[in-house]
Amino acid sequence: MRPEIRAADESWEVLAAARAWHGAGAIDDAELAAIRARFVDDRRRSRPGFRFLFFVFTLFAGQAAWAFVMTLVGVALAGRHELVLAGQLAVLAAFAAGGAEWATTAQRLRRFGVEEGLVALGLGWAGGAIVLSLGALDLRDWPALFLGAGAFAVVAAGALWRWATPLTGLLAAGALFAALYALPGARWLWIVAGAVVAWLSWRTSVDARVGPAHRRRADEILVVAVLALYAAVHVAGLRSDWFGWLRRESHLTSDVPELWRAAAWTAMAALAATLLALGVARRDRLALSLGALVGVVTAVSAIDALDLEPVWLLLVAGGLTLIAAALVLRRIFASRAERIAGGFTDRALYEADGDRSFVELAATLVALSPAPRPSEPPPGFAGEGGDFGGGGASARF
Amino acid sequence: MRSPEVARAIPELVRDGVLPPRRAAPLLASARGELVSLRGELRALLGLGVVLVTSGVGLFLKQHHEALGPGVIALLLTLAAAACLVAVVRRSPPFGWQRVPEPDWIVDGLLLLAIGLLGADLAWIEWQFTPLGAHWAWHLLLMSAATAALAVRFDSIAAWSLALSTFAAWRGVAVSPTAQNLERALFRGEGALRWNLLVCAAVFAAAGWALDRFDRKRHFEPATTFLAALAAGVALASGLGEASFWPLWAVGLAALGFGVARLAFARRRLALFALGGLAAYVGVTRFLFEIPGWYGLGCFWFALTSVGAVVLLVVVHRRFRAGGET
Question: Is B133 within 8 Å of chain A by CB?
């Protein structure tokens, strides 16, 4: 990444924080103006909603332009033209990369949407070129996966290094683990690589010497590495032999030694506990969220393994436990001075929550909206009463 | 929010007299990660708990309604909903027609749980004792009104949106974007569903107008207007597949889209603007599919219009930057 882009990102971090402080009433107009005068961001940035629209329309325009050119040239996806198409896609990927570079340097776009759309187009076309090249070379199964995913990991890592646009970390790490999946001893490779990559990415994500955009991408890599590590040690993966399918080594056996199962359960629980402990000790929200996620999945896996019944009781008990946990935490915060306990608080802390509110609203509507009444009554309907909950009742009632 | 750049900047701002030291201290603690807010995570925890409990209660009623008897179950549900409402009342500030400043984060979650239990209770009573007889679906309207009243009393936009979606359910309209619901709304072209969607759109639009006009819970208006535009858009889009009358629906959709985009532009509402723009785009594009050999032209059209949309968005973005957006 160019130094001037990193410097602009750093200024933008301060300006975004100042806007949040102003929104929360922590600073006044004059102080905000003084901060704006001091930290100059020379990039063109768009607001979140516009950024999304710019991104989508850039993707759409690129794909439609490609389809239009293909229609004019007359090369269809059918037939034995893989290598020709792969070449065309590689050229297009290079053009998209050039466009992204031009947009970020000459046009000074950053977090704007268009340059991110161009990077996404470039990665998509590069991925297509890799897949078609492997097909043309008649590579199949694990060699194809290893080479294809490995090549894509390199391309995505290049995009991450150069532009650090969102999701490049996720794609690069995902492709890396896909490549490792193709190798012998994939489970052990995932365990070792998952632990090493998780540690390195966590260190990077809290390193003040690293630029803001690269720190965010390190967070993405951390998420992938932790999930890969968890999948590798999961007891269901041992039973169903998740890592043997591709290399035709799977016996699809459920006969796993007791010792291995115990080790898997221990590892699953230990990973959740480690993440939670790390999150609390370092006040790291991502580690806390990942720890909670892994913990919940482990609990659900245990319920499944123990074949606990009835489901309604488990749902109600689980729900009440979560509600009780939230209430207890709220009570703890309320009992402390300024609602702070162990470096955490339940107050809103200078963070704009507009986007989160929208997501929460959508999630509430999807999860709690009642099922609609049928548009026409069934034959013989005699007014026996409805079986649909009202506002907020589960649609499954 | 933890940020090394902000943590480096704050001492400089204090040294240069931009920020007073006393006010800078909490900002610095947040930037250094010494103080972290868990508000979002706690709300998510509570919300997940509410969904699990309401789902579990629904499943229990389905499986074990004979074991306890209908009267006992109705009583238990009533008591549970009342307990939740009491908890909400104890924690909520006094009623006001305007936005409540700094509401307790737990109120929304408990209110949604109370509404969920109340909804299950009403549906149960209706199912078991059939007080409404053949008009059983009216309990959804009743529930919608009750939810709206609770939303206004406790200043909950989430509950207000739920009241609107319950009204839609009364008219036979599903809000959840499942494949089945989308297929029913957009591709099956059911005339009754289309008109019900238009009824919902009209009612929501009227509610949004009234909230704004009479300055009562005005902050509920953007979500209400958005849902009205969404319902109208889906209703008109569902007619695009009709064999004979599709031009009527396409023109209507395009007109609606332009109108909504214009309103959103004036009020600087991005989500509504995007919805209006999308509706207008779909309405206009529908005519393209009637041109012989549209496939080649289609790619050209989509490429050209996407670039045009980006240019238009740049213009709109500049305009929006001049003021706030919602």
Answer: yes
